[in-house]
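Lab meeting prep.
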Amino acid sequence: IAVAENDLAQARHHLSASLSLNREQGRIGDAALQLRLLARIELKQDRPARAARLAGAASLYSGKERTLPPDDADANTAALAEVRQALGERRFESAWAQGAAMSFDQAVTFAIDGGVSINDEP
């Protein structure tokens, strides 16, 4: 709801808390959904490299069992296209690969951190 209402701070807060719980409970499929939602938030906050990394990390866990209802595949596809356009093909592929190379714990920590690091641009 917070994402739909464009309350990105509130959405990040709720998603981060839920992502932490899903990590503790081993719900990897649910975490993938949350990583994709956080990637869309990063895009809205003009941080396409973080969005690509989160999407890359989520791609590893998307087929896992989940308890949450499916997310909006069309919104995810549109967001990825926008991220790809913002970064260009080479930077997109680099950021995606960096996300896909993260362990599950690294991806969750990266997502929850939410800050921009010096290494944020691939």
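Slide two material, second protein:
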Amino acid sequence: MRRLMNNKISGALAFFCLLINPFLSAQSELCDGQLGNNIFTSGDFGSGTQNIVSVNPNLAPGFQYTTIVPPSDGQYTLTNDIGNWSSVFQSWLQIGDNSPDPNGYMMVINASNQPGIFYERIVDNVCENTEYVFSADVINLVMSQFTGHNLPNVSFLINDVEIYNTGPIAQDEVWHTYGFTFVSGAAQSTLKLTLRNNAPGGPGNDLAIDNINFQPCGPVASLDISIPGKICRESIFPVLSAHISADTFVMQWQISYDSGIVWTDIPGAIDTNYVVDILSTGQYYFRFIYSNTLSNLSNINCRIFSDTIVIDVVPIKFHVTDTICEGLSFEFDGQSYTETGTYERYYTAVNGCDSIVIINLEVVDDPPIIAEFMTKPPSCIGKADGSISIVSVSGTRPPYKFFVSGAPVPSPITSVNVAAGTYTVRIENEYGCFDEQQVIVPDGPPLMISTINDTTIILGHSLQLEV
């Protein structure tokens, strides 16, 4: 990893109060603390089944968009896989985008002879005195064995002023994340962010860009819980504690009822400690959001998210209902039940509260299920194209289960191919009542080859043999 020294910006950028911390590393290491939402929601260029995006996305004002690949000098395209192009430069890597999505798009650029802008965006609603990360994933498309090619070189600009430069991007066939962090100034509300090409065109200077990110970065934060593990209803509820490595901050606890998809503010929960007071059973997700001022906390471009913690609230009483056939047993925790009735089992939980399991069991009469099967031998000895088929079933109604030697046959299939042999076949209804019998599938006929009987002929004569 290559870390550059911090620099202070003066002159035209003095109003930013920028704290520059540029270096080459993984995205998670650009921010030492927690991250907020990526304001560039389309910075991964989206996803689709089209190999090449047919509509001009108008992303690079310094380059021409093309759907004819490979692109010429000064052109770019959006694609999900260079390997699926009808034609590609011999020296180029044939790769997909930098994500687990097989259909994810990336920007592929054949850079121009003059500096040009790859990407530019105006960001409104920027928060004052807030640290942000501006980064992008970049790869040199020229394979390592091809020498004498110009190396790409990309600048990151804020309001048309270069703040960070990648330097020459090596032909190492690896995606790299380039970027930096900075702190917006007081009363700062709008920024223009730009990625610019610096290297000359001609042979080389061919690259792909993906995952452009611009997101707030907050101080290190963590959360913990006073009572870990599952929580019983009506027990002593846990306390969630937030830890934020900042002298001043504002925060808000949030809850999600759908595994973290939608988050809702918990009214009044703005202190570092929050006592969970949920009464109903279920699984709940908790986190907190935080920022440096109350106005920034209400702005989705400024708030930072903590990690998530999950609380399972389990009931004191559990109800189990089942119906079985006469002659069978219902097994629960090492105990067998064979008669209709209601049964209770008591348990002492390790997390501080006892629970009761109530079993409602019904035993039904065993009906006279009668099944008739038909077998067909294989076409010849050793083949497995014989069959066992259901002819009729009485004493129960579909859907019932069909087993051949213990293996379930998926419904609604009523015939299976088998080799010669003896099989146990079973028809079973929803309560476990069944008819079971053995059937024999005979072997198929042997392969017999014969010709004419022994015959004597005169020397010099001929005889036609027929098989």
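Talking points for slide two:
The first strand starts at residue 2 and ends at 3.
Confidence is low (pLDDT under 50) at residues 1-28.
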